[in-house]
Amino acid sequence: MLKKLAVLAVIAVTSVSLGCQDSQIQSSAQDRATEQKAEASQASKPLPSKQQASDNESATNSKTLRISITSPGNNDSVPERTNVCCAVKGSGVNVVAVVIRPMETNDYWVQPEAQLDEQNSWSTLAYFGRPGDIDIGKKFEVRAFANPKSDLKEGDVLSGWPKAQAVSPTVQVERG
After folding, report:
1. pTM for the model
2. Sheet containing 115-116: which strands, arranged edge to edge?
């Protein structure tokens, strides 16, 4: 019996990790397509002066940090506890915070701090509502924040989305 439980635990952990990895591969392909379009657009523009190049480089460096939620996907049905996976493009990220807003409220709940895994993906096991069946069918918004401007702790309830160096697009899910 214990062997069977151990095997099931390994399978569950592997499937969660692969879920982040599969989403990260898809996200990487989308990033490459976006970069190729940007490079093609830049190739047709005249060369800037040295001052303009310097100004553009510093502006680009401050804007190159991007974060996205790779799992769950928009409009997915999620259980009470769900692994939220995030891909970060750029360097210098020390903290990734995930915040969830039940759409019936104006409360924004800080989730456990995301951890960097072996696939270079940030993830956390987030809470989507209360234990039991009470929140089944309810909708939630999820966002991820790279290097938040304020100190966010698990369980904090905010009155709005926090400020951060980079913010993911909103993902909407439904508790299943």
Report:
1. 0.67
2. 66-71, 81-89, 122-127, 115-116
Q: Which residues, 6 or more positions from 42, have their beta carbon under 8 angstroms from its beta carbon? A: none
Residue that the structure tokens 């939630």 belong to: 140
pLDDT in tens, 25-75: 444 444 444 444 444 444 444 444 443 443 333 333 346 899 999 999 999
Helix (H) or strand (E) segment spanning residue 101: strand 96-102
The SS3 of residue 12 is helix
Query: Count of residues for the chain?
Result: 176
Instruction: Write out residues in the chain with pLDDT < 50, as ranges.
Output: 1-18, 23-62
Tokens at residue 119, please? 């696939």
Q: How many CB atoms lie within 10 A of CB 129?
A: 20
> What residue ranges define each of the domains in the chain, with the CATH number in brackets?
1-176 (2.60.40.10)
Contact 97, 162 (CB under 8 A): yes
Distance CA 167, CA 29 (A): 20
Amino acid in the structure at residue 48: P
Task: Give the E-state strand segments of 22-134 in sequence order.
Answer: 66-71, 77-78, 81-89, 96-102, 108-110, 115-116, 122-127
The amino acid present at 39, given as its one-letter code, is E
Total Cβ atoms within 10 A of residue 110: 20
CA angle 83, 2, 6 (to 5 degrees): 30
Residue 107 structure tokens: 């409360």
